[in-house]
Amino acid sequence: MGGFDLSSIEDYVANHLRFFVFSVIGLVIFVGIIAVSVFFIAVHGEERTMVPDIVGKELTVALLELQVKELYPRIQLRYSETSRNKGLILEQDPRPGTIVKAGRRIRLVVSQGVVMNRVENYITRHIDEVRMDLNTINATAGGLPLLTIREPVMYIYSPENPGTILEQKPEYNTEISGPLTLEFVVSRGRENQVTIVPQLTGSLSAALEAISSSGVNFHFTSRARTGDERGEVVVSQNPEAGVSIRLNNPVQLVVTAPERLSDNERFGIFNYTIPQNPYPLAVRLEAILPGGERQRLFTANYMGGEFTVPYKLPVDSILVLSMLNRELYRETVE
After folding, report:
1. How many domains does the chain have?
2. Are residues 88 and 157 in the same domain?
3. For residue 264, is it within any domain?
4. Which of 1, 11, 87, 290 makes the best surface tag, with the fewest CB within 10 Å?
5. Could you read off the pLDDT of 85-113 as tens digits, one per residue?
6. Where do the DSSP E strands lie in 112-261?
7. What is the pTM assigned to this prediction?
8. Would residue 14 count as lying in a domain?
């Protein structure tokens, strides 16, 4: 009898052992693939729902409709142009009919009504101050022109300070239910109002300060120095100090040129014609120097007309003229 072939038995066992090991590994991989597939199917298989149309509905009703759809609100408040839609939905995002996953947050813009409920008492207040207040109110209301002033405003002569509101329509405490136009009667000051001309000859800086504080109208011209005259000095004024003149009549002033200028400096008279105003308004002349620094040159209340101010500045400075903090004009010193 032949003996057992041990090498054949060992090969057989080794082959079956390898088959078993690979089978186990394959089974583990297969089970893993199934588990991962089930996980992603579960994740991607969340319930989907349609966004309802809730614009124009009350907030409580809209919240109930979202709850039924398993959707959640993200609420923003905003003033609107009428008090009648207070508490109503103005906007929604996503739009109605959009298919989304359950649990999605829906952005809702809810009306707070108008920013004001009743008309304030504007009588005795300054028209410019009221304009700034209304700009703030309209900006707070989301840019809606809730309260506007009918232009042009009616100006009349009166003993009250120029710019004072004398009458208003609608009257104080009128209810605001939507956009409203205010009509004002405003004082332009006394008719033929007069002032006493101050002493303006001498230092240019002192003359500008006196003009600013007195409110007198003015007009500058310049000329070269003669004899032993100093530079940047007001050498003449017409009318003279102490004379009584109408407020809108300009005092003619002559200023001398500087004694010396560097190659990088320029002297001149800034000149710009400002539209006539019903009463003097705050005007400011500034210089933006080449390095970016801002320098105030002159401020005054001005009726309008030819606005002239002497300056000595570096080349490439920018002269900026503003009225009521609104820029009117700018030019570069060359």
Report:
1. 3
2. no
3. yes
4. 1
5. 788 999 999 999 999 998 899 999 998 77
6. 147-149, 154-156, 165-169, 180-187, 194-196, 202-203, 218-223, 233-238, 244-246, 251-256
7. 0.59
8. no
